[in-house]
Design goal:
By secondary structure, the chain is an alpha/beta fold. Helix content is about 40%, strand content about 15%. It contains 15 helices and twelve strands. The structure holds 1,3-dihydroxyacetonephosphate and iron/sulfur cluster (SF4). The site of 1,3-dihydroxyacetonephosphate has 11 residues, from helix 3.
């Protein structure tokens, strides 16, 4: 998969309204429900029946899809796998099957299995941003929204492995005082943020709180006034008395922030290594209105999961949902 940039403006087409009308019609005709992550384009978030962070999407999957025949998951592949695991009787479709995740790719199941074998007696906690194979090797899954709570549900001296995100793992170690053994994986989008870029914005907007996703590197996390999942950052931005915010996560979230607080100013942190200034997740941005329409019309790109892996992967997902109540 290539990690090249894809700016939002380049994706807008003249036929946008026609596509939106087609999708609305097809949703009704096919009794389809559309789920979307906060990182996909605003147009897709607006057309979705439910928009959330990874935790909310997993929590809502069953109820949101209960009466639907088709579920269209607009996000990346691990999110669609989770929906299929939780709603095995539904036809789960994705607009583009190439929408993967660099973080999930940084943890091949065979290598993770060896890592686990090297740490006998350890409980395996995995971030939900993983392949089905890694989920099947895990004792419990977490998202950025519930990782702290789930890690703290284990005794203070428990021997824990945390994979695949070294940054989220290090952040959780720092706030819980645990010493989890970390898999050395990362998200290429969040790793592009730098403390220097935030410091420059702080000079310009000294009063603006800095909102940081815990997939960012330690120096960036340390600059955060708020560190949390996309839902936590959104909630803070909407409720805070501040009127300007510096945002260090994928800029798709700005759509909801601006919709929810039109009078406030949200400043995306530019990546440290890009020429165009955006820090889009190229995988999330593979979801386009045209692909959504074609996918619904032709019922394309159905998600199938290996039954044996699915049975094993469902156990840590259910445990996560239980522990996050
Ligand atoms: P959350 O949805 O948990 O905030 O995670 C962000 C992310 O990187 C999803 O791919
Ligand atoms: Fe994966 Fe990072 Fe994109 Fe989320 S933002 S889907 S973790 S590559």
């Amino acid at each position: 998969m290539n990690n090249s940039c894809s700016c939002a403006d380049a994706r807008l087409s003249d036929g946008r309204q026609a596509l939106i009308d087609d999708i609305r019609r097809l949703k009704k005709e096919k009794n389809a429900v559309v789920l979307a992550h906060y990182y996909v384009d605003g147009d897709i978030q607006d057309i979705a029946d439910y928009v959330g962070d990874s935790l909310a999407l997993a929590q809502k999957a069953q109820s949101a899809c209960a009466d639907a025949d088709i579920v269209l998951m607009c996000g990346v592949d691990f999110m669609a796998d989770t929906v299929k695991l939780l709603c095995p009787d539904k036809k789960v479709l994705v607009p583009d099957p190439a929408a993967g995740c660099s973080l999930a790719d940084s943890c091949p199941p065979e290598d993770f299995a060896r890592f686990i074998a090297d740490h006998p007696g350890y409980t395996v906690i995995s971030y939900v941003n993983t392949s089905l194979g890694v989920k099947a090797l895990s004792d419990v899954l977490v998202t950025s929204g519930n990782a702290r709570k789930i890690v703290e549900s284990f005794p203070a001296d428990a021997k824990l492995i945390f994979g695949p995100d070294r940054n989220l793992g290090a952040y959780i170690n720092s706030v819980t005082g645990r010493d989890m053994v970390l898999w050395n994986g990362a998200c290429h989008v969040h790793e592009r943020f730098s403390a220097e870029a935030i410091a420059r914005l702080k000079e310009e907007y000294p009063e603006a709180p800095v909102l940081v996703h815990p997939e960012c590197k330690r120096p960036v996390v340390l600059m955060g006034d708020v560190v949390g999942s996309t839902a936590v950052l959104l909630d803070y931005a909407l409720k805070s008395d501040s009127d300007t915010f510096i945002v260090a996560t994928e800029p798709g979230i700005l759509h909801r922030m601006r919709q929810g607080a039109p009078g406030k100013t949200f400043i995306p942190v530019p990546p440290s290594d890009s020429t165009c200034g955006c820090n889009d997740c190229n995988f999330m941005k593979l979801n386009t209105l045209a692909k959504l329409r074609d996918c619904l019309a032709g019922e394309l790109n159905e998600v199938h999961v290996d039954p044996a892996l699915a049975e094993r992967a469902l156990v840590p997902i259910r445990r996560m949902l239980e522990l996050s109540k």
